[in-house]
Amino acid sequence: MPTLASHRKSRSRTGVRANTPAVGFTTAALASVTLLSTQSATAAPAEPKPSIEEVQKKVDDLYRQAGTATQQYNKAKEATDTQRKSVDRVLDDVAKSAEKVNEARRSLGTYAAAQYRAGAVGPTAALMFADSPESYFEQTQLMDRLTDRQQEAVEDFQKEQRSAAKQRVKATKSLETLTESQTSLKAGKQKVQNKLAAARSLLSDLTAEEKARLAALERKKEEEARRKAEAKAEEEAAERKRQEEARQEEAPATGGGTDTGSGGGSGATDGTYAAKAEKVLAFARAQIGKPYVWGATGPSSYDCSGLTGAAWKEAGVQLPRTTWDQVKVGKRVATADLLPGDLVFFYDDISHVGIYKGDGKMIHAPKPGANVREESIYYMPIYGSVRPA
Fold first, then answer.
1. pTM of structure
2. What percent of the chain lies above the pLDDT cut of 70?
3. Do 277 and 317 contact (CB within 8 A), yes or no?
4. Residue 299, preceding bond cis, omega within 30 degrees?
5. Where does the chain show beta strands of DSSP type E?
6. Hey, which residues are catalytic here?
7. CB atoms < 10 A from the CB of 357, how many?
8. Which residues are within 8 A (CB) of 172 and not within 5 positions of it... i.e. 6 or more apart?
9. d(CA 389, CA 384)
10. In whole angstroms, what is the distance from residue 339 CA to residue 264 CA?
């Protein structure tokens, strides 16, 4: 009797085939769990969100860095504009030299044609075919003079060629320098934009509540600056009073006479300066509310040195473009001796400037996102002050 065992299908030892979807899914799931467990164990903890105070400090730092970069950009742009004008002049010289070369070439061509015509007939034949001996000798004398002039023309041509070559070399170098400056200018512009973008990004991540708290911190900072300004003004007033009392006590002993000048300077000079300063401040007040825009010099927007330059231009005084150069104009004055119209500079890198208006306040273009406004001069660390005229 034949056995039936050979017709039976053998069973898998595991009970399920290894290539079934269920096994594949289970294997993948286990692998994922294992991987996630490993990642969770090794992942670095998330960085804590910065506090409002830290955001304020970071934004202020970025705006200050942007201010410094703006002055660098302004200085580079000023130099580039000067270079561009120089290149234009050099190119004009190249064009003039080329025209002179062409004129010399035309002269040479005229003489060469005359010499060719004269050289086509020998001296004997020329004498034979001449209308008269006198006409022959007149022609010969003319050709001698023509040869001398031709030599001069050759020398002029060579001279103009050399000059034109030098002008072309100069133009090439000037264009290379201008191209390098324009590349640097573009990089400076990008640097400012990166700083401003980083500051805007920080501010945009804040919630409405955090923005309100940040505004409150700004108001607190401004109030502290106001109190500091008032305390400083009282201290300066007390110091001036002590100095005045000391002068009055010394006057009888020294026979000081009738010196009525103040400790700060002469009345005539101050009167002239005050008239200019009034024009400066009138202009500055009219700009209040206009936006700060980096690199702008008006009339619809300004950066800090753009505003001071435009304001003093109203009084007939031309200031340099950057804070770094404006601080070198006129004479330095102490904070205690400030007069309306004086320029007050801030930070160790002299990256900001405002126009003093009196009572410890100034008019300035503060920073991106803000408008021209009045503010305490003690809101930022003072570097120094100058009287432009």
1. 0.56
2. 69
3. no
4. yes
5. 331-333, 343-346, 352-358, 361-364, 373-376, 382-387
6. 304, 352, 364
7. 22
8. none
9. 16
10. 10
Task: Among 83-92, 261-270, 301-310, 322-331, name the one with the lowest average pLDDT.
Answer: 261-270
- What's the CA angle centered on 289, arms 288 and 294, to 5 degrees? 95
**DSSP string for 309-335:** HHHHHTTT----SSHHHHTTSSEEE-G
Kindly report, residue by residue over 271-306, the tens digit of the pLDDT.
799 999 999 999 999 999 999 998 899 999 999 999
Is residue 216 within 8 A of residue 206, CB to CB? The reply is no
Cβ neighbours for 372, distance < 8 A, ≥ 6 positions apart: 284, 287, 288, 289, 290, 291, 292, 302, 307, 363, 364, 365, 366
Looking at residue 357, its amino acid is K
Confidence of residue 53 (pLDDT cuts 50, 70, 90): confident
pLDDT of the residue at 286: 97
Q: Give the up-direction half-sphere exposure of residue 244: CA atoms within 13 A in the CB hemisphere.
A: 10
Q: Which two tokens stand for residue 273?
A: 């300066």
What are the angstrom distances between the C-alpha of 260 and each of 55, 247, 256? 53, 11, 10
The string of DSSP codes covering 146-174 is HHHHHHHHHHHHHHHHHHHHHHHHHHHHH
How open is the CA angle 348-71-204, to the nearest 5 degrees?
90
C-alpha–C-alpha distance, residues 291 and 309, integer Å:
16
DSSP characters for 228-285?
Answer: HHHHHHHHHHHHHHHHHHHHHHHHHHHT-TT---BTTB-HHHHHHHHHHHHHHHHHHH
Nearest CA among 314, 299, 285, 244 for reference residue 372: 285
The count of C-alpha atoms lying within 13 angstroms of the C-alpha of 335, restricted to the half-sphere facing its C-beta, is 19
